[in-house]
Amino acid sequence: MEAIYLDHAATSPVHPDVVEVMIPSLKENFGNPSSIHRFGRSNRHVLDEARSTIASSVGAHPKEIVFTSGGTEADNMAIIGTAMANKDKGKHIITSQVEHHAVLHACEHLETLGYEVTYLPVNKEGRVSVEELKAALREDTVLVTVMYGNNEVGTVQPIKEIGELLQERNITFHTDAVQAYGLLDIDVTELSVDLMSVSAHKINGPKGIGFLYVKEKTNLAPFLYGGEQERKRRAGTENVAGIVGFEKAVQIMQAEKQKKTELYLSFQKEMLAVFGREGIDYKVNGDPEHYLPHILNVSFPGVSVESLLTNLDLAGIAVSSGSACTAGSLEPSHVLTAMHGETDRAFSAVRFSFGLGNTTEQVTKAAEETVKVVKRLKAL
């Protein structure tokens, strides 16, 4: 039985070329970049080169890139760091109800410290309203954090419009671009963002490495204390092997972005064609115009998503649910609940996400197996 992995939005396989470039950093080039001897200087040069490559991928200056352990740390650093650095200006933060938990839980933490957070609702497609955001702004608003592309349903938010609005008011703007990076063209200047989070393991890089873009002169309190690495913004010896792997993943990403986008869109089209041809009842979740090409979230009304996932796994197909099983009871995803309420649609959603190694044949087989399981479960 062939194993088919369609959960790339959760994590992606490391590209073989990324593995190859990391090996020397793990075996031979072990110097600490902060050391002044040749071993340290050699890795400092490697670090600087990688920072330049990664910065150029988003139109940033190398000194505006802060390496982190991944997207979660970058989100926490942006949100908590901005709040702490600007508490004399105000304690109001705006975010959306459909953010990644790294953002939502950071905001909830700040609420325990006396900050006030406005959680913007979204429409049925999962998009925030720029007008509602504008209406929520206050004199004491110090930060707005809205994700670029949603990790569950793939909806892309109006980041450029929000950035332009906030630039006029001199309010710090952060976006979590973990899912969007690598598939959408991103230029931090055009988007008018001050802070942006990215993770390597979503673009076939290693786990444990990411970055936070910090626009020059952005007021941000350090999140870690110790050494003076990352221009005193993130203490700790740099993960050189991870950064080297990240750089290679970025180079591959830039070369293949257009081809991947077209391929993933064809996968979405093929999967939905199979569902339509077989006549099963399904509903696509997300925005039909503003969406990420690699994520397809589908609800199968009347079907237990827990049973569906289990049966697909037994058939060798790895996908994920828009729901989380907690303490033995299935709870609907906060994203789908924000979009549709606690309805059957929220309880029956499955996320298919495409990436490295997937083929049209695999997608067709996965769709056909899904149809079989859905029909079988509905018959029961």
UniProtKB/TrEMBL annotation:
Keywords: Iron, Iron-sulfur, Metal-binding, Pyridoxal phosphate, Transferase. Residues 4-364 form the Aminotransferase class V domain. It catalyses: (sulfur carrier)-H + L-cysteine = (sulfur carrier)-SH + L-alanine. The lineage of its organism: Bacteria, Bacillati, Bacillota, Bacilli, Bacillales. Its EC number is 2.8.1.7. GO terms for molecular function: cysteine desulfurase activity; iron-sulfur cluster binding; metal ion binding. This is cysteine desulfurase. PROSITE patterns: AA_TRANSFER_CLASS_5 (PS00595). It is an enzyme of class 2 (transferase). It comes from Exobacillus caeni. Belongs to the class-V pyridoxal-phosphate-dependent aminotransferase family. NifS/IscS subfamily. Its cofactor is pyridoxal 5'-phosphate. It comes from the Bacteria.
